[in-house]
Records
---
Amino acid sequence: MINKDPLVVRWTIGFLRWFCPHTLVEGIEGDLLEEYDDDRLTHGQKVASTRLLWNTFKFFRLSIILRNKIKYRNNHLDMLFSYFKITLRNISRSKGYSFINIFGLSLGIACCLLTANYAMFEFSFDNYHPNLDRTYRVDQTLIWSPDGGTFGSTGPALGSLLKNDYPEVEEIMRINTPGDFVVRYTEENGDVAAFNENRIFAADSNFFNFFKVDLKEGDPSTALKGLNKVVISDEIAEKLFGNEPALGKIIQMGNDRKPIEITGVTKKQHENTHFQFNYLVSMPTNPAVKRFEWSWIWTQVVTYIRLNPGTDPRELEKKLATVGETHIKPSFQQMGINYDDFKQAKEPWQFYLVPIEDIHLKTRDNRLGSVGDVRYAYAFAAIGAFVLIIAAINFVNLSTARGTKRAREVGVKKALGALRNSLVAQFQAESIILALFSMILAIPLMEFLRIVIVSLMQDDLPFSLWSDPKFIIALPVIAIVVGFLAGLYPSFYLTSFLPVQVLKGKIATGMGNSVLRNSLVVLQFTISIAMLIGTVVIVQQMNFIRSTNLGYDKENTLVINYAEKLTTHIVPFRDEVSKLSGVISASIAQDVPRGRTYEDIYTAEGSTIKLPLTSVKIDDHYFEAMGFKLIAGRHHDIEHNAADKRAFILNETAAKLFGWTPEEAIGKMIIYPGDDFAKSPVIGVMKDFHFQTMRQSINPLAFNSIDSEMWGDMRVVAIKYKTNDLPDLVQSIEKKWNSMVDQTPISFSFLEDDLAENYKEDRRLGDLFAIFASLSIVIAMIGLVGLVAYSTEVRKKEIGIRKVLGASRATILVMMNSSYVKLIALGLLISTPLGWFAMDNWLNSFEFRVNISPFVFVGAGLAVMIVALLSVAYLSMRAASVNPASVLKEE
Amino acid sequence: MTTPKKLADFFNKIYTNPYISFTNYIEMSKEFLAEFEELVLTMVGILREEAYGNAIVAEIKQRIGREVNLSAVHVTLYRLEDKGYVKSSMGGATNSRGGRRKRFFQVTNAGIALLQAMKECAHRPMETRAST
């Protein structure tokens, strides 16, 4: 009938059918058509069609369109409430299991959050600066080492060249490191406050175009323009001036007490940046930069560039490959150095553009601060994920193990007509709700863990969950995902029961599908044991480093840093200090062997060997104070023999690389090319000692005299002491210092602490490994206890029958424990190669390392096993000593 | 409903005014219908077995001379059905209306009770005035 109607009617009805809910459409359609028929008879076809269209259109409203859909959603919400209610009932019905589930999972989530937070912090470095996508640091070939590699410092000449000759470069900015200074401030009452200050940088005036450092006081566009201006950090401003405004105040920097005006104070600087500064002076304030403006080898600045939009950095890198021939070579000729000689046996002089985001994790060198290690960032993220996996496994295992308890519920529900989908939904909802509870509990736990970690490592974790709003939003999402994944298997397993069998009591073992559960337990123990192995190996290596004989006496050595500030008083200071009671010996040197090195290329008379040699200036008492051993010749004796001023003492390695035995070396002449002072005789050869970190092999080293004309103005006073009252000694040394210099604070450290500083990152890795390994073991044990508690419950009758039939308590104990002991052994078997591979890899970053002994694996496995046995001892004892009558009487 | 009711009882206790009943106020607010809903409900009652969309439109026009739109009547009927004052069922097949069946509406007991309650309420103020 409808086919005979005009097109407009058919279309209108079609439209109605499209939007109108199925249940309503017939009644409405009929009413509309009836009216249309009436209208056609009374008003004619045209009016009727118009009215039909209009009337139909009036039905197009929310109360019709959404009618049944909203009702449907209401039902769904009711179901959710019902899931919630049932979950709460289940939790309160079996409090023990629920506690294990929730607490274990929240421990896992807390660990995961903490490590994820750390990893996110590591990856967030320098990702907030303006025009990030076209801002780069210019690195170059490491020209100071024949080994090659790249480093992040460049000569000042590079910046000017890039700015003037390369149109694709929009802007350049250089940061120079003038070193540490004494900063003095004269207060209104005339008192002078003096501080040894570090992290002092000099920057071009467009610094603030490159880095997002906000100023609390001062104008970023002018703050670094002109001579003797400085921008200071908020902490320094507070230290110097308290709460007074710092802008416009004058401070004195350095030994010459140059007055410098404060033109800006930063807000609190970002933690996730490759450098933070205390003082940022304007570039002209350090005249050295101007003096070396032409230089390519005064590599004391970091050059940053911003390219024009659309420039390919790789193209520019290619263009820069020719700079060596076109610009550096002529500059070398002016200095009188042969460029090709200099370049001999080194990698070609290249420049590389490094995105500033990558400096922290993807480069190995940062002149302005430290760098992180991308492997450590990944390692921590992985550790967190592993702990979470262990916790989630508990969840899966306990849920499936408790299958019997729930099986009857499932059976009854199915028999009453519940669909499998809705049962799956119920179990999933339960698991997600539990995960959400865990998440709520995880947040205080995480903060607690953080306090524990911070106090254990005595090192602040420089990040906070609460600083990133994205993370807070992500929290419930993480909980839901974890809950969903962990609930996936239990929900499908538990709902697969056939009601008939369940209600007949067929699925009684409940330990069914133990293959999956057992493999998950094995995975848990594999991870825990591997982490334990990692911890042990790191601890062993750190102990090895601490206990290795470095070749000299590092104990009881006090180092007075920045002793060059004593100027001419340094010798009297040394002599006065050595007279103090408790001081065995005091000596002046350029530095003590604590990881810092200054290499240069030397050659020997009549030899073609060019050797990168680290030279350190020392005085006559250095050998005595530090306990170095000579194996040939003698040490410097300037007091009696002025010619020793030029003399060298080589280490064994240097002598060997020059091709000499220690005895042959005495009397040989060392030449420093590119310098015009006379040849230096070798007067002694010393036994090799570790002057760099254990990551490096022992490199060639030379000692020359403190009075030599060689480069190197830095001085330390090394003091070997033996006293029971160290504070008193330090005080008297400080008194001596203050009597010799005016308004200059003393700065000292202990050699052992300085050495330990070199392994800070490794120690941190070890500490974190230890913490997370123990947490993972705790979580795995919680799960194990849950499983054993369950299996003793299920096997109660079996045990009773066994006892009736004559089994002893010991046999029962063995039976109860053997099952998971086997699993732990399997876990050990799997984790051994994994742990060995990973830790051997790490150890390879050390030149001097321990070998992993097989006892590490045996020990880790045994430790985990003992902990496991102890954890379940009470449960298995109780099960084994049960009175058969009490468990068997019921049937 | 329990809590407002309890609240109302509480107010009744401490504020004993014979003219004002909080309980009534609360219940009335629930039970009263909008003017148009009341009209449609009444028409369903009047039309008895013949109450379907078009018939109601026609009845309203005939009785009070008001032109109402079919869609408004339908939506109101569904709302009344949600509230439980009417129930609906499909009629037999027809020859007119392109063969579509009619959806007939019927007043439920709750609907009848409501119509009576509303009638009483409309009269009550006058009764109270008369009794004083």
---
Amino acid sequence: MTRTETAVAWVLGLVAALGFALVPVIATWTLDDATYWLQLYIWILFFAQCASAWNIIGGFAGQYSFGHSAFLGLGAYTSSLLWLNLGLTPWLGMFVGGAVAAAAAGIVAYPCFRLRGAFFTLATIAFAEMLRVGLELSDTLFGIKIGGVSGLALPPKGSAPLIFQFGGKVGYAYAMLAILLATLGIVQLIKRSRMGYYLAAIADDEEAVASLGTSPWRVKLAALLISAFLTAIAGTFYAQLILFITPTRLISIDFSVQMVIMSVLGGLGTVLGPLYGAIVLVPVAEITRAIWGGSLQGVHLIIYGALLIATILYLPTGIEIHVRTGFKALVRRIAGLLDPAAGERTSSVPNRPVITLPEGEPLFVEADGWTRPPVLALTDVSRSFGGAVAVRELGFTVEPGEVVGLIGPNGAGKTTVFNLITGIVPVQAGRILFGDQDLRGLAPHQISRLGIARTFQIVKPFTRLSALENVMVAALPRYATHQAARAEAERCLAFVGLAHRVDAPADGLSTGERKRLELARALATRPRLLLMDEVSGGLDQQSVPGLVALMRKVKEQGISVLVIEHNLRIIGAVADRLVMLNLGERIREGEPETVLNDPHVIDIYVGGAVAVG
Amino acid sequence: MHELLQGALSGFLIGGVYGLIALGLNVIFGTIRVINFAQGSLLMVAMFVSYWLWALFGIHPYLSPIVSVPLLFALGYVVQDRLLTPLLARERTREPMSALLLTLGLALVLDNLALLFFHADFKTVVVPIGLAKLRWEGLIISTPRLVGLCTMAVVASLLYLFFTRTDLGRAIRAVGQDRQVARLLGIDDRRIYNVAFALGSALMGIAGAILAPFYYTHPAVGTTFILKAFVICVLGGLGSMPGAALGGLIVGVIEGVVGLYTQAAAAQVVLLGLFVLLLFVRPMGLLGVERR
């Protein structure tokens, strides 16, 4: 952007924000039925708050909660009970409510986030329903009146801002606006921080994140705690606004679902998306209510449901990106009017300089904290799935700086060996040592931090991130600042020959480039042992020599390599030693020449038919 | 003791219907790996079909599957073919998480359309069997619930035969285990997905017919059952057919016994609490297997 464009963008943005913030004041001045419109405005802010909070776990981390109204309820009940019974002002009570909600969220999510798939979603609904029914059935809790199904009424005190009650709607509007602004600020901070990188990566592929040294479980849990906390704050606001809370109304599937829909329509994982979603959808509910009144309930939910389906199918990124593009176009047009010469100058802005790695300079130096690899030793390792034995009493070693090839027909257990070493699949029997460190019982991210990195058979770049950001996910855990991590990531990209593609979105890369990107990502963890799964898989013949050269370069860095490869010509050229597996057992081991010319090995590779014939 | 037995028995009997609903969920999950949040809504649709067939034409609910099963089969087929397939094609490499959102949207639309057209009042099908009872050793056996349990047993057996003895059934299982390989073997995976979803949906036609004589018909009735079905599926093991049947019976018994001592709603709290506990202890369920 040129300077003019930046200035225009700031002015326009501030005008829009100010205009939005001044709605209550202007409405009060100009409208007769201002209260009605103010109420609508407040609901928009309220739902924007809820949806923004939901978006932290649902959008950024990709873990859908369908029971977020539970946190709304916990916030409302906690602050209200504290005020009714102890006289604590809801301004403070809402933080306690947030803490209570976060604690509850942590308990529910603790097991779920270790599991793959939809368990979290199911658990959140179950938790919300349990809480709702439980509250409906309890008139008292530890002797404190909570009102059961008829709920709690808060005595109105007129205009009493100190206890979070305002005489008119304007006060509530600005209280909610302030809370929402704080929340949006927090969301923006999260997006910019390392947590933002991790979350975006987790939403794409948790296994890959763990393999890069970050515990997805911890990041997801942190996101959920923040999300629950901020939802509970909205709950307190609701209690103070309505001065009457019931479990049936507050902890409803209706509320939970609205948060989901507003985030999805607005744009999952965006900062302002949930606000846009609320701006669009809250009036929809209001309009249907105005047209059909109370006689036809649920019309707005039909529209919401249909919009949810349509959004997921036809507009999966939500409206935020379109608002942003539209805004940019507007800015450019205005800037063009103000400063017609600007357009020409834009084109002459130089691109970011391409990073180069001087020929022969090592990627990692020992003085830099990198140490030489120890021996990887597997002893009698076994693993079965159900009744099927995948790996049986397997033993082999990878010596420091050695390239060992793992070969064998499909189903021989090669990838399972990788999954066992990296901790994705727990070892059932036997021992895996890396130096004198026993890897049994360690989580994938812990193993990564010991200096074992891997690439995947099916490349798994984080599609939402650029090439550089992909590698930064791997570099960030080891650096205090973004800058340092970025520098390291750039070096790794240069090492694999992707220096010119630094800012390319990962899903725009070719298969060969993705393979290189994945290698750069693995290297950015500073591995001492690198596990490479199917290097040539999915590649055309032209790309193969480049990758072979790259593997040699990795070896020259002093990194030990264990590689699975189907193409025996490649593996013969690269490996110092081969380990041949069949049906989970080691059947041959030795120099590539010897193993590849072994009649038994040829037999297995060429197939039983030849052996019989 | 007698009371306890009675509670357990009543629960065991209703567990048959629960199992049937969970079977539907698992047929879909086992193949497509999507948890269908609209399963309860499909059940609701089926119950309304049974209700209206009775209310308008006097057709006994037990005959309504003649209409409701093909109807729900078609509905499920269309939902998978038109809505889910395009979505799954986009998310091929990942767990199809946004399918959760899509089926949630579908549930919202179906439930609230029913609310719009049929209103929120509770409708009951009045047929003699609804209140019929058998007595055995001093225990009361509700006939329609017994019919439900027997139906579940028959349907589960037929499903078992279908999945193990027919080409189509085997193809569905193959696609469920490894879609890519199945496709390489010449199986039309898109059609299989459609059939699996349609089948899971059609089972709700049977469940609806079983429920109609002794349970109220209401736009939100699906929500009541879907939550139980989730608990059952996780208890039995997500995707496991015998798990669904067994889980249904267990949940029924727990509910029946807990319900003796407290209100029915409290039994639900206990059940959902157990569910959360289960996630800590054995998330793969009783009959589930760890997947590679």
